[in-house]
Amino acid sequence: MEGALHTGRSGSLGHPEGAGAVLSVRWAPGGLFCLTGASDRTVRLWNPRSGLLVKAYAALGNEVRDACSAPDRGSIAACGGDRQVVLFDVPSAAVLRRFPGHEARGVNSVAFAGPGGAVLVSGGYDRAVRVWDCRSRSAAPVQTLAAFRDSVTSVVADGPEIVAGSVDGTVRSFDARLGRCAVDTLGTAVACVRLSPDGGSILAGCMGGRAALLDRRSGCPLAEYRGHVQESCKLDCDLTDSGAHVVAGSEDGRVLYWDLKGGAPACEFQAHRGAVCSLAWHPEGEMLLTASQDGHCRVWRGSGRA
User: Fold this and answer.
1) pLDDT value at residue 4
2) How far apart are CA 112 and CA 5, in angstroms?
3) Exposed site from 65, 128, 142, 290, fewest CB < 10 Å?
4) pLDDT of residue 281
5) pLDDT at residue number 302
6) 10-residue block means of pLDDT along the chain (306 residues)?
């Protein structure tokens, strides 16, 4: 079956004792390395196949809620509870830039955008998406999108378009070229947004244990996914590399896996003792990464073509 998931654990990433909850896990472009962000204020770069730590990056003043790697893999952006986005140099771990500008209780999500990752996009508790030019000498945002009525939980970028989810129950898509904003209202707080591999759909993970697949152009609902527990935590969902399946974490430590059409989960397994805060499917279907409040990040065998 295309997108089949084999639930035998293939390894763990060795976060040190006392690192606390692992709040985010992301693949670096190309899928050879991955990033984790933890409550000990540290971003870590890993080789997930060997489980070896490559480098640690520490410059945030609070927990790391999200991290991502530039398309050229030369820099890493991270954000968290200290209301700023930090840009690191990958080889040296030196801080290249700091972008302070978010207000309230911090920044929830960050993503690279633009040619070569020249632009950063972030969303935070201050109900705003902010856009930063990594090449500019100014640390001020070049654009602020403040259409939300509550915290922005998740952002993704695709060319000139930014897609963001919010606790106000909406997914908003901004087109920078046309100055246009499309709004899809889901009725419950949105904790995560992801784009399908073909770019035609938006997957939105919502509080109340629901994930919804939306047609990106029309906003029409295509499918719904239920069975996981999500009542109080910000959890991730994702699509497989083929776009044929959906995977999501649960507050009770399970990972669930559905056919794209929805219905009952095709597979589920116990991945952690704590809530599965974050997960990421390999861009070529080889692995699934899961990160948890229990302080562990695990690597699972997968196949997007089996």
Assistant:
1) 44
2) 29
3) 142
4) 97
5) 60
6) 45 84 97 97 96 95 96 95 94 96 91 91 96 92 95 96 98 89 96 97 98 96 98 97 97 98 96 97 93 97 47
Whole-number pLDDT of residue 305: 32
Q: What is the pLDDT of residue 10?
A: 59
Beta partners for residue 204, in sequence order: 193, 212
Domains of the chain: 5-302 (2.130.10.10)
**Neighbour tally for 73: CB within 10 Å:** 15
Q: Which structure tokens are listed for 164? A: 């963001």
Q: Which two tokens stand for residue 214?
A: 């939306």
Read off φ and ψ for residue 26, nearest 5 degrees.
-140, 145
Put simply, whether the predicted model's pTM sits higher than 0.90 gets the answer yes
- Which structure tokens are listed for 95? 């801080």
Q: Compute how many other C-beta atoms are within 10 angstroms of the C-beta atom of residue 87.
A: 21
**Residue 199 DSSP label:** S
Do residues 23 and 38 make contact, with C-beta atoms less than 8 angstroms apart? yes
Q: What is the 3-state secondary structure (H, E, C) of the chain?
A: CCCCEEEEEEEEECCCCCCCCEEEEEECCCCCCEEEEECCCEEEEEECCCCEEEEEEECCCCCEEEEEECCCCCEEEEEECCCEEEEEECCCCCEEEEEECCCCCCEEEEEEECHHHCEEEEEECCCCEEEEECCCCCCCCCEEECCCCCCEEEEEEECCEEEEEECCCEEEEEECCCCEEEEEECCCCEEEEEECCCCCEEEEEECCCEEEEEECCCCCEEEEEECCCCCCCCCCEEECCCCCEEEEECCCCEEEEEECCCECCCEEEECCCCCEEEEEECCCCCEEEEEECCCCEEEEEECCCC
Q: Taking the alpha carbons of 192, 116, 53, 64 in that order, is the dihedral positive or negative?
A: negative
Largest CA distance in the chain: 51
Which residue, among 208, 265, 276, 196, has the nearest Cα to 236 in the 3D structure? 276
